[in-house]
Amino acid sequence: xxxxxxxxxxxxxxxxxxxxxxxxxxxxxxxxxxxxxxxxxxxxxxxxxxxxxxxxxxxxxxxxxxxxxxxxxxxxxxxxxxxxxxxxxxxxxxxxxxxxxxxxxxxxxxxxxxxxxxxxxxxxxxxxxxxxxxxxxxxxxxxxxxxxxxxxxxxxxxxxxxxxxxxxxxxxxxxxxxxxxxxxxxxxxxxxxxxxxxxxxxxxxxxxxxxxxxxxxxxxxxxxxxxxxxxxxxxxxxxxxxxxxxxxxxxxxxxxxxxxxxxxxxxxxxxxxxxxxxxxxxxxxxxxxxxxxxxxxxxxxxxxxxxxxxxxxxx
Length: 315
Ligand code: NAD
Ligand code: UDP
Description:
The protein is α/β, with parallel strands linked by helices. It has a single domain (2-180, 219-246, 280-298), classed as Rossmann fold (3-Layer(aba) Sandwich), CATH 3.40.50. 35% of the residues lie in helices and 17% in strands. The strands form 4 sheets. A 7-stranded parallel sheet has the order 3-2-1-4-5-6-11, sandwiched between helices. Helix 6 (252-263) packs across helix 8. The radius of gyration is 19 Å and the shape is globular. The structure holds nicotinamide-adenine-dinucleotide (NAD) and uridine-5'-diphosphate. Residues 7, 9-13, 30-36, 56-58, 73-77, 93, 97, 101, 119, 121, 177, 179-180, 186 line the site of nicotinamide-adenine-dinucleotide. Uridine-5'-diphosphate binds next to helix 4 and strand 8. Keywords: Decarboxylase, Glycoprotein, Golgi apparatus, Lyase, Membrane, NAD, Signal-anchor, Transmembrane, Transmembrane helix. It is a single-pass type II membrane protein.
C-alpha cells in the first residue's frame, strides 16, 4: 500500500516510516526539515519503496501525490523557549502547519479517498483540571498564552479533521499523543528526557524548572508507533479521538533520579527558577479507550526505554 507520512524526517515520523517500510509498504515522506533531519531517514533514502519530498505543507502540495493512507505528523513539537526548534521560535510556522497544513492534507485525503490520521497532543488539555485526562475532557487552555500557538492550532487542526470527516466523507481519526521519547529525539530541541540524559552523560547538572514536582507520563517510541498503526488500521476508528501514551506518571525530580541511576552519573539537580508560563503541573493519559478500541497498551517499562535512549545518546 502507498502511504504518505508528513513530518517523516522527524523523531516520530522517521520511526513510523521504518515501521511501514518493514511491513512492506511504499512510503512517501513529506517534510520541510524545519525541526527534523535527513539523518533520521538516511538509511531509507536508497530504498526503492521510500521517497522523500522536501516541502512545506502549509503551501501547495504536488499535484501527483498518491496514497491510500496519510499519517499527518508534521509540526514543531518542543515547548523549550530557548531552542530555535521550539514552537515558540517557530510560532507562525506552527500555527500554519497545524491549520493550513492540516486543511491541505484533509483535501488531499478527500481527493484520493485516502484515510487520514492527525497527530494531536495532550497539550490540547492545557493545565488539566481533570486527572488523568480522558478524551471527553475539553481542556483548560489559554487562547493567547505563550503555548497557545501550538495548543490552539492543534485544537483547530482537530476541528478541521472532524469537519472533513463529518461533511466531506473523509475517513479521518485523531490521536492525542502524550510525551513520547526514544532514539532520534533532537539533542537541541530541549525536551526534558534528552536534556536530562545529555546532562547526565556529561556529568552536568539536571536543569529542573520549578520545584520538579510537576508530573509527566513517558511513552517509549516503539509503543507509540504501534498505537498509531493500530489507530489507522483498526475497524471503527473513523471519526474517533484516541489518547496514546503511557499511564505511568512520574515527577520531573523522579525522572532526574532515574536517569542519574541508569547512567551512573554524578549530576545533581539544579533548580532554575519558576516553571515556564502555562507549563502544565500534571499530565497522565487515561488510555481505556485505546485499550478497548485498539487492544493497545504500552509494553516497554520506563527503565528499558530510557536504557535504549541513553545508548543512542552515548553513541
Ligand atoms: P519532530 O519535530 O521531531 O518532527 C516533526 C517533523 O515535522 C519535523 O521533521 C519537521 O521538519 C516537520 N515539519 C514541521 N513543519 C513542517 C511543515 N510546515 N511542512 C513539512 N514538514 C514540517 O517532532 P515529533 O516529536 O516527532 O512530533 C511529531 C508529531 O507528534 C507532531 O505533530 C507533534 O505535535 C506530535 N506530538 C509529539 C509528541 C512527543 O512527545 N514527541 C507529543 C505530542 C504530540
Ligand atoms: N523541564 C525541566 N527541565 C528541562 C526541560 C523540561 O524541568 O530542561 C520540565 C518542563 O518544565 C516540564 C517537563 O519537564 O514541566 C516536561 O517538559 P518537556 O519540554 O519535555 O515537554 P512538555 O511536557 O512540557 O510538553
